[in-house]
Amino acid sequence: MDKKYMARALELAALGEGAVNPNPLVGAVVVKNGKIIGEGYHKKYGGPHAEVFALESAGKEAEGADIYVTLEPCSHYGKTPPCAKKIIEMGIKRCIVASLDPNPLVSGRGIKMLQDAGIEVIVGVMEKEAKELNRVFMKYIIEKKSYLFLKCGITLDGKIATRTGNSKWITNELAREKVQKLRNKYLGIMVGINTVLKDDPSLTARIENGRDPYRIVIDPNLEIPLESKIVNFQDGKSIVITSKENENEAKVSILKEKGVNVQYLEGKEFKVSDILKKTGELGIDGILLEGGSYLISKAFEERVIDGGEIFIAPKILGDEKAISFIKGFSFENIADGFQLENVKINTYGNNVAMEFYK
Amino acid sequence: MDKKYMARALELAALGEGAVNPNPLVGAVVVKNGKIIGEGYHKKYGGPHAEVFALESAGKEAEGADIYVTLEPCSHYGKTPPCAKKIIEMGIKRCIVASLDPNPLVSGRGIKMLQDAGIEVIVGVMEKEAKELNRVFMKYIIEKKSYLFLKCGITLDGKIATRTGNSKWITNELAREKVQKLRNKYLGIMVGINTVLKDDPSLTARIENGRDPYRIVIDPNLEIPLESKIVNFQDGKSIVITSKENENEAKVSILKEKGVNVQYLEGKEFKVSDILKKTGELGIDGILLEGGSYLISKAFEERVIDGGEIFIAPKILGDEKAISFIKGFSFENIADGFQLENVKINTYGNNVAMEFYK
Lengths: 358, 358
Prior knowledge:
18 strands; homodimer; alpha/beta; 11 helices; 9-stranded mixed sheet
């Protein structure tokens, strides 16, 4: 019974995907006498919370009803008044929560506020599903680092481009459509400078009513061409992370004039975990890592990939000099290699993908 | 209506898989007044044909009934009397056939024999499915060459072994179970000499009531160790194909004493198509190609792979020196690479496979 309504609340929560970051996805359902009398979800960053929509759609009927919420109702005045207060005011009798707020500073406070007001609270219904839905938020709030999701499209022999750099197209249209959805889901997209030099990508999310992600280029030597697409969006969403050792002030000035956000890290060989810390500081909760080979390999080496989806096309290059999506390792035994965990197989016509999570 | 009974006949035909080669898989259903009154399939090489089983299970009721057969009834005296004759004798009124006999010498003769006896004959119901079921037979009968089916298990980056040759295990148990089924399905398994030298495989089909396949080793320089498992089965099912230029008569003698069938081809770099011709002459209708890299690459180069199933595990080696399942090619554009056709995606737990056909 509880599970049915929570499943609906999770379904609603998912509708906010791509529009609420770095806020969590939240859904809520108000139930009375076995009937849903109100529904809501967090629709937009800065907008009203799920509980508000659900309670308002229920109206006065909410009195004596149950509310199912996928995340602990907030207890503090932020961009909106606390939802726990609203739940109390509307006369809710029972509150069923999937997962607690991961923020250690506030976790449990919403629950306590409700209980203090005499509301029965049940926590943990479909908790696993709720946490999975908010993987990005959960990591970001606790670690203050961006969540890293790998996307790459490979041939059956693991190549992302031919020896001459040709990479169009490996995957099919269905797979590329899914990539557009991923670009909409994550607040940022990250690529290495070689990808920019080779492909000059625009890294936009070509999806209806979608939101363009922040474009993050890892460019220690500040090699990015001033005429590259990423530099010329003029929307303040292009970020270049370069080395503090660079003294090309002139180029930095031009980039800044073009609205590019230039960020610095120590040294010339950045650790991916430092990059994720930096982007976390910039408020980017999750990043889609799109390549290239060097950055992906570094991320695997540091074991900082939180999840990913690797698309495989029924194509074969059979060329040792074609570009592999990952390189530079040396393992003696199969068991020593990288093993993807919690794998889910997704089919896209004649392409297939392995989706995985840490 | 017709399709429903033919679908059942095809289902029956498939039950003979692994037991009838190099005969075709055939199923038959006898139908009277909208009711199935007899069923049969070709169960075993040399045994009675599908029609015989179906007609005998129908008994006298077969008079005036319809028979659905997946392959044109035979018209000649072979290991058994002609099925067309039996159909006529039993008083069948209508005969529905999925596909004609592919053998140009007899194709259409069974149909004619039936028609001459006044039986109404319909040809082509579910013809595509029937031909797909007998892909091996169709090629073998027409070209007199073994059908070649590739099986390999790879990491996400296309490797079949680490740089030190370790390959156990890449794929999971579910995938390996499927491989056992493939080994039972094809009359022969083929590997290159390097695979024998490295892994000393036994290449048996570990399947209940299964039949061990012929083990074919491509060994131009006759390097096969006399103590290798394949050499010591003493069942006459191990075949070594070596070069005519070899003059190691002593080793050949010992191999023959051990019951190994030594076959010869010209030169030292065999064409895979010549190998398939040779194995076809030996009566092997279909071969499962299990590796290694060299033989697989040659087969791709010659474009003689008729079908295959490539199993992908969620593992990554990221090592340029690990062994790729295919190598030696050089393509400038993605579009120039090998493209698998008629791809079907099969899931085996966290492993996935691409099944494909020419």
